[in-house]
Every structure is written in C-alpha cells, then in structure tokens.
C-alpha cells in the first residue's frame, strides 16, 4: 500500500467522521473553517450574527449567540493540520473522547467574515473574504461581551483583532471597532463576483433558522463514528500544549516544559 493511497483512504474516513450538512472548508467543522489570529498580528472581521436572536423553550426566551458547548480537539495521527473537532456529549450520551482521556474545553462560537489580508503568489497584498467560525474561549467571550454591551449588537460591526502573544485566545484579545457595515452582501460586491458569491450563513437568518444552523453545524458525532475514528487513527489530544520542539511552527508552547496537561487557551 502506497503512502498516497493510505492517505486518501484516511482522509476519506476522517471526512466521513466529521461529515455534516456542509461540505466545503468554509462550512465544515474543521481547522480551515475557523477564524484565528496569528500571534503578533492583527486581523479584520465583521460579525455576522444577530446578537439579539432568541429562542423560546420552557417558557423563557434564551439567547444563543455565542453558541456555547464543550469541545474536543483530536489530531489524526498527531498531525495538527488534520484535526477533528468534536462536540463533547458527556452527560447526554457516551463520549469516546472523554473515555480516552481527552481534555475538553468550553467555547462559544460565532460567525464572522474574515477580511485578513495575505500575500498572493505575485507578492501582492490581497483580501479574499471568508466566512469563518470564531470559536471563543471564555476569556475571549468576556472581551466580546464587553464590546457587545457597548454597541448593543455586534451584527455588521467591523473590528480589528490583535493577538499579542500565545497566551492570548486564538481568536485574539484586543478588539477595536472600525466601522459598521449596514449590508454585508452589498459590501462583498466590491470583491467582485467571487466575493459576492460567498455564503454568509447564518447572516440574515431568523432566530429559529440560525439556531438550527448552529445545532446542525456542531451536531455531535454519532457514537459509531467516534468508534470508527478511534479505530482508524492514532488520535492525539490537540487541546493540550505540546512540549518544546513538537509545537507547530509559529505556535511555540506558552508553558514549555510543563508537560501535556495544560489546556491551550482557546
Ligand atoms: Zn467528551
């Protein structure tokens, strides 16, 4: 069996295991779908959720943005570029990740339009807007809550987001309001046909539809798929800091030498 065919098979299995209603990277619950800020840099985002969305159950109206849940992060065969994010189901149904000793962490997710600039092959600084999930750790959630309380609603607000060091949440800690975008679809037209075609879900949704969107997006992996994943791969807990020398490039561990039980500050 060649490495190539093994990889193909593995990739397919991983895809099956993380399958949800959306297929492309922008909408699958994977590494590429997630917004994060490189240490020492500033990114631009526009918030796409209506923070006033509420759904009613048990007779009470409840907010659901940020969409909070416990999560596991598993690297397939220890490869951080090939990561599976799985909603923890502890207390609801069996969770193989918990059983295997994986740490879980709490995140509140939102949707943002990522306007981070990058240098293209021609060496030109360009912006290709991308809809991404912003998975905020409690520390980041507290910062964002402060901004929300000030504005009333972050829908359409464009922020500069800076991450100063690797102890900062991955989504950044320094949020500076830039301007308010009245109509994000209109705004996207300036990026040409490709920009105009970007899927902005759940932008513009009703509360019920948006709630369903997140419930589907983060739907827990069925137990049989969890089992299949553990059988097919050597899964490494990606939520814990790695010892010096094994961290991915540009992500030096914040507490080198403390070993593997320090949960990354998401
Ligand atoms: Zn779990």
Structure, explained:
The chain has one domain. It is built from seven helices and twelve strands. The longest helix is centred in the N-terminal third of the chain and has 15 residues. The N terminus is likely disordered. It has 266 residues and is of the alpha+beta class. The strands form three sheets. Strands 1, 4, 5, 6, 9, 10, 11 and 12 form an eight-stranded antiparallel β-sheet that branches. It has a two-stranded antiparallel sheet with strand order 2-3. Strands 7-8 form a two-stranded antiparallel sheet. Helix content is 24%, strand content 26%. Strand 4 and strand 5 form a beta hairpin. 30% of the residues are buried. The N and C termini lie far apart (38 Å). The structure holds zinc ion (ZN). The site of zinc ion (ZN) has 7 residues, from helix 2.
Question: What's the short version?
Answer:
By secondary structure, the protein is of the alpha+beta class.
Query: What value does the average pLDDT take?
Result: 84
Strand content: 25-35%
Helix/strand order, N-terminal first: HEEEEEHEEEEHEEHHHHE
Please tell me what the overall shape is: globular
Provide the gyration radius in Å.
Answer: 19 Å
Q: Which regions have little confidence, pLDDT < 50, spanning 5+ residues?
A: 1-10, 17-24, 244-260
List the total number of helices: 7
**Number of spatially distinct domains:** 1
* Percentage of residues in helical conformation: 10-25%
Ligand names? zinc ion
**Structural class by SSE content:** alpha+beta
The major β-sheet equals: 8 strands, antiparallel
